[in-house]
Amino acid sequence: MQRWRVIHLTLRRNRLTAFQIIAVSLLVAAARAASGEPPVRYLSEPKIFILETDHTSYVFGINEQNALQNLYWGKKITRDQDFVSAHTPEAYPFESPEGMANEEYPGWGGMRYTEPCLKVTLAEGVRDLVLKYVSHQIKGDTLEVRTRDINHDLFVTLSYRVYPRHDIIRKSTLIENQTKQSLVVESAQSGVWYIPPGVGYRLTYLPGRWAAENQVTQEVVNQGKKVLESRRMVTSHQMNPYFALDYKGEANEESGRVWFGTLGWSGNWKIVVEQTPNQQVRVVGGYNDFDFGYQLRPGQSLSTPEFYGGYSEGGFGEASRLLHHLELEDILPHQPPPRLRPVVFNSWCTTEFAVSEENQRQFAAIAAKLGVEHFMIDDGWFGERKTDRAGLGDWYPDPDKFPHGLKPLIDYVHSLGMEFGLWWEPEMVNPDSQLYRQHPDWVINFPGRPRSEGRNQLMLNLARQDVKEWAINVFDKILQDNDIKIVKWDMNRHISEPGWPEAPVAEQKQIWVKYVANLYALIDRLRAKHPNVEFETSEGGGGRVDLEFMKRMEQINTSDNGDAFDGLGIWEGYTFVHAPKLIDGGVGDNPGTNDRSTPLKFRFLTGIAMGGAFGLCCDIRKWPQADLDMAKTMIAYYKRIRQTLQNGDLYRLASLREGNLAAQEYVAADGKQAVLFAFLHSQQFSQPAPTIFLRGLEPDALYRLQPVDNKLVEKQQILSGSYLMNHGLDFNLVGDFDSAALVLERVE
Ligand code: DGJ
User: Fold this and answer.
1) Do 514 and 268 form a contact (C-beta atoms < 8 A)?
2) Which of 43, 411, 494, 564 is the most exposed place for a label (fewest CB within 10 A)?
3) CA-to-CA distance for 115 and 368, rounded, in angstroms?
4) What pTM was estimated for this model as a whole?
């Protein structure tokens, strides 16, 4: 076995500290380089590109028609010579060889009938695009392959980046109009992933809706197409840009082959999962082509979103862990340096718009005593914002609620030893606001037509440079004038009447791309000017969460659903893609959503279990002393284990989708600590809760068991990893909404 593979396996077996992992990764990279096998290589004889991660190979070649053709994606193939040149398939009635070939980036042209990656209309009306290989460039972990249409100077550069230790590859493209006339791009996809041919694949995906984000859903793939998409100018609660495929349902949490991917785009996106008549499953993703029509003048170009794809043989659990580590190490902002997420208090669930300096001081005084580290003030602090009918757009403190501005409150919060955070919603305006009265033309609209309101608000057209500059100035000033550590960036409606009347008619549809690009630019400018400020994405809960947005956000406002039981399901779906560290778990008051009441301990433990960013959103002014005491104990407990929760490996041990019990385990990066949580829905017929089998421990290591309560049946205080993983543990969970937590410390 190559030296670097041995090192990697050793790394996986013996859990190491973050520092050791970086050191070993460098060693692995050096060993890989020394072994003469760079992660991206071109073999000129069979004309193939090999993109290699630690455990996977992704291979495509240049076929006899000079087109790029995919050859393989899956478990690593260690012998390059096993691959021969790409050849188009034999002709078949009513098909063409090129149409049946797994083309790496098919244009819509010739006899091709599957979902294309690129569709254009050229100036003279030609709607035929056939792309051929021109050249390529390899630099370290990246590959760029340039292609050109057979007749026109329309160039498409396919870009790849390999993330070796995450077993993930990223694709995107750059479309350049080098012709002498304008053209219209009607569909611009980031790429296509091909799964080994076969019938009976199962798709796992994450649909949802407001307050019910990311519901894990599975179905068999049949001939035809399944479209996952957003047409709402945001990533959306309604569908997460994620897919996973396994063969005939063979994969589970712990094992089985899983091909998975996720798209980084915070506007209209589309993923098409297609099974062709030739039993080829392919997944195309990129911009949503609905109402697209992006005009490119001569010399102009358009880049597509980044589409990440990975492969694992460790089932859905390992596929998720690969994405979590990609996100933690390569996606999230690194300035300010990543830190453990603080315990947050926010009074929104109690006060809503009725915030005032006085009531915020009351909350802050109690929160500080409980151990809260970050005090956030939500909606309602500005303009005439007494309800959701007015004030959005007028970003100055409401003088009735904060007669001396925000500073006295911020100083008070700081004097209690907490950080201060602020909510805002920059992209929106209430018609009842000074901003709208001054600039009614700044909103997205079609002249003379209705301006549909969502939550009594309209969307500012961020695609306009003047609106973008206004936003930069306003929010930059707020950050200059106030000592703010975390900004909660909200957005509480979706687009309608997507007009941009000031732009030339031929370019008005560019709003779909330019709005989002300017939103990114706005956040990037603010982050660059205020490098110590962190951001939380909120879009009425989790409506704008994708890998491109997460390059700019430190945490996620998970959901507007405060029900602890519902939260378990929402959290589970999130963790298919996103690292638990980012997922803000919180404690609300009874009754919550569904008019459901759950025990305080259940609410705390679910909040902690799901919480990278754990917090309270409840009326602690009204809590009895016993509840406040529990809060203090639980917050201290959370601080003891949050390093493991936020930076460790997650194992989803039991799911409410499959039974009455949810259980999750986190194992610290250095293997010294593990934490287990178990949640019972409803006991029936006095049945005991099922045994929980732990994962990810060292079989021969000993672990000291430290239960947080009296629920653990096992009386031994020290047990081996092999016992914990094979014999498992039982918990005396009874009645409704019972819960248990256990810390395991490795005995040195
Ligand atoms: C929606 C968010 O999800 C809530 O947490 C809160 O910030 C409200 N908006 C405020 O309007």
Assistant:
1) no
2) 411
3) 56
4) 0.95
Residue 182 one-letter amino acid: S
CA gap 478, 488 in Å, rounded:
13
Place of tokens 């006991």: 683
Query: Is the CB–ligand 1 distance for residue 430 below 6 Å?
Result: no
Cα(669)–Cα(665) distance, rounded to whole angstroms? Answer: 13
Catalytic: 560?
A: yes
Distance CA 608, CA 677 (A): 9
Specify the DSSP element, H or E, that contains 616: strand 615-616
380 C-beta closer than 6 A to ligand 1: no
Q: Ligand 1, atom 2: nearest CA belongs to which residue? A: 540
> Contact at 8 Å (CB) between 42 and 138?
yes
Strands 661-667 and 673-680: antiparallel
What spacing in Å lies between the alpha carbon of 417 and ligand 1's midpoint? 25
Tokens coding 731: 């918990």
Give the separation between CA 352 and CA 144, rounded to whole angstroms: 50
How far apart CA 126 and CA 677 sit, in angstroms, is 60
490 is catalytic: yes
| Residue 314 per-residue DSSP state | B
Q: Is 229 in the pocket of ligand 1 (CB under 6 A)?
A: no
- Each residue of 509-548: pLDDT tens digit? 999 999 999 999 999 999 999 999 999 999 999 999 999 9
Q: Is 541 in the pocket of ligand 1 (CB under 6 A)?
A: yes
With a 6 Å cutoff on the Cβ, whether 562 touches ligand 1 is no
Q: Is 365 helix (H, G, I), strand (E, B) or coil?
A: helix
Q: Which of 588, 630, 632 is nearest to 610 (CA)?
A: 588
Whether 490 is in the pocket of ligand 1, judged by its Cβ within 6 Å, is yes
Collapse the DSSP code of 633 into the 3-class scheme (helix H, G, I; strand E, B; otherwise coil) and give the result: helix
391 ligand 1 Cβ < 6 A: no
Structure token pair of residue 528: 């660059």
Mutate to test the pocket of ligand 1, among 560, 570, 617 (most ligand atoms within 8 A of CB): 560
Element (H, E) at 177: strand 168-177
Distance 202 CA to ligand 1 centre (A): 36
Handedness of CA 380, 383, 384, 390 (dihedral sign): negative
Distance CA 725, CA 690 (A): 14
Cα 333–chain centre separation: 13
- Separation CA 481–CA 483 (nearest Å): 7
Residue of 560, 584, 589, 649 with catalytic role: 560
572: phi then psi, degrees, rounded to nearest 5: -60, -45
Distance 540 CA to ligand 1 centre (A): 5
Give the Cβ contact number of residue 136 at 10 Å: 17
For 299, the 3-state DSSP assignment is coil
Q: Read off the pLDDT of residues 352-371 as tens digits, 9 standing for 90 and up.
A: 999 999 999 999 999 999 99
Angstrom distance (rounded) from CA 727 to CA 721: 10
Residue with tokens 């040195």: 748
The tens digit of pLDDT for each residue in 287-298 reads: 999 999 999 999
- CA dihedral over 586, 589, 594, 598, signed as positive or negative: positive
pLDDT tens digit string along 670-729? 999 999 999 999 999 999 999 999 999 999 999 999 999 999 999 999 999 999 999 999
What is the phi/psi pair of residue 569, to 5°?
-70, -40
488 C-alpha to center of ligand 1: Å? 9
